[in-house]
From TrEMBL:
It comes from Penicillium nalgiovense. This is FAD-binding PCMH-type domain-containing protein. Belongs to the oxygen-dependent FAD-linked oxidoreductase family. Keywords: FAD, Flavoprotein, Oxidoreductase. GO terms for molecular function: FAD binding; oxidoreductase activity. Residues 43-269 form the FAD-binding PCMH-type domain. The keyword Flavoprotein applies. It comes from the Eukaryota. PROSITE patterns: FAD_PCMH (PS51387). Pfam families: FAD_binding_4. PANTHER family: BINDING OXIDOREDUCTASE, PUTATIVE (AFU_ORTHOLOGUE AFUA_1G17690)-RELATED, OXIDASE, PUTATIVE (AFU_ORTHOLOGUE AFUA_6G14340)-RELATED. The lineage of its organism: Eukaryota, Fungi, Dikarya, Ascomycota, Pezizomycotina.
Length: 413
């Protein structure tokens, strides 16, 4: 930590950057709950200050203070980083970071002649969906949680439209040298940008969809092939249960042509539900269940992920090993699940060096989540999750460390 004079000078700098009403310091009453508000309670964080800039110029002034007084600065949009990265990152020993919250940057504007929308980084996905839909029945690909925004944005429409990232035309940013700049998406990715003020996205027409749920029979889905990009699927393993669900974007007739249900020889063939309202599809069944487990309320949780490509498919022996491990190992909790999410399609049609997302070869992600609403994750549970991960890595050593950056292993921070 610096000396008292430099700490006072840093405070003065932040106060003059955003005004006294828009900055909170560590010594404020109820600082953790009212200002820091960490999402993963398993990862304690204490930023030196929290700022609430109201304009790009104020963001630039905060960045300038950070550079001048040797702060690590970190921004926050939805605040759902698994490791609370929106609050703190890579603390050096000398200083604690400050953080800026973009809640004042929730603007939305649609240019209906081009269908390019301009959005602020503080807008949540849920509000973005509603705004887009109301502006000419438009939509874009993104993840399932309505209160987040940034990072890759894998979700139900990614196989047909790509990642949320792939919709970005241009970003307005404040650079580390505190200048305000605009970048086309390619140069923005290369440029090590610090924080976005406005994001310009192209959008797609929202459409009707048919949703199918079924169990067992993964052939032709979690393996390379010519499965329609309009079909998205998740396999979720809970304690004692496996659910395979999918969404087909198109008409019921087109869905029937895929003949998927014949591929699932099961006594419980599941249901097909046809939805014709776009916003209704966005909050559909399984995603809601997942969000209830790893939802919006801050809690103690741990997650990790592994990506599998057409060249690193999970061998049958490892699947047997996984099932055996789940049967025999004490998880220390019932509140865990594994999700295998099908990717590929339009995501992988973008070349690997075009954006910062470096997993364009991933066919499906294996993600494990565990939650404890009552307190820190126990060692038994860490061991269970790490053992699950270990079974796969042992079978496919080349997959080790190949995790989704939106779902990093978040315990060691
Ligand atoms: C319940 C839940 C469901 C999820 N589902 C999905 C899913 O379906 N698909 C998917 O892809 N991911 C999913 N994720 C992962 C999610 O994408 C990441 O956790 C993401 O980081 C959350 O974005 P945020 O805006 O809430 O993050 P924040 O915590 O606000 O920020 C995340 C990171 O981005 C940086 N950042 C934030 N704002 C800015 C800015 N304006 N400029 C520059 N950097 C910035 C932060 O400093 C931090 O490092 C899910 C997460 C949760 C908790």
């Amino acid at each position: 930590m610096g000396n008292t004079t430099s700490i006072a000078a840093r405070r003065d700098c932040l106060v003059s950057a955003v005004g006294p009403a828009h900055v909170t310091f560590q010594d404020a009453l109820l600082y953790q709950t009212t200002a820091v508000d960490p999402y993963n309670l398993n990862v304690p964080v204490t930023p030196a200050a929290v700022t609430y800039p109201q304009s790009a110029e104020e963001i630039a002034a905060v960045v300038k203070c950070a550079a001048e007084y040797d702060y690590n600065a970190q921004d926050r949009s939805g605040g759902h980083s698994f490791s609370n990265y929106g609050m703190t990152l890579a603390l050096d020993e000398k200083t604690a970071p400050s953080r800026s919250i973009w809640s004042s940057f929730s603007q939305f504007y649609m240019d209906e002649s081009t269908f390019v929308a301009s959005i602020g980084p503080g807008i949540t996905l849920g509000n973005l969906d509603t705004e887009l839909y109301n502006a000419g029945s438009r939509a874009m690909a993104h993840g399932i949680c309505p209160t987040i925004l940034t990072v890759g944005g894998l979700g139900p429409t990614a196989r047909q439209w790509g990642l949320a990232l792939d919709h970005i035309e241009e970003v307005e940013v404040v650079l580390a040298n505190s200048s305000i700049d605009r970048h086309g998406v390619q140069s923005a990715h290369a440029g090590g940008t610090w924080s976005g003020r406005s994001i310009f996205i192209h959008v797609q027409p929202g459409d009707s969809c048919a949703e199918g749920e079924a169990c067992q029979g993964l052939e032709g889905i979690y393996s390379p092939g010519d499965l329609s990009w309009n079909f998205y699927s998740n396999l979720v393993v809970f304690d004692g249960q496996i659910i395979l669900e999918g969404i087909f974007f198109g008409s019921k007739e087109e869905y029937d042509e895929l003949d998927l249900e014949k591929k699932f020889p099961t006594s419980e063939p599941g249901t097909v539900l046809v939805r014709t309202d776009w916003l209704g599809m966005i909050g559909h069944g399984l995603e809601e269940t997942i969000l209830k487990v790893v939802g919006d309320t801050p809690t103690w949780f741990y997650a990790t992920s592994l990506g599998f490509t057409p060249d690193t498919l999970i061998p049958d022996s490892a699947i047997d090993g996984l099932v055996d491990y789940i049967h025999k190992t004490n998880a220390g909790t019932l509140a865990w699940f594994v999700a295998l999410s099908l990717e590929d399609g339009a995501i992988n049609a973008v070349s690997e060096d075009a954006t910062a997302y470096s997993h364009r070869d991933v066919l499906f992600w294996f993600q494990v989540f565990v939650v404890n609403p009552l307190g820190p994750i126990s060692q038994t549970t860490y061991d269970f999750i790490n053992g699950l991960y270990g079974v796969l890595v042992q079978a496919l050593p080349e997959s080790a460390g190949h995790g989704y950056l939106g779902c990093p292993a978040c315990v060691l921070v």
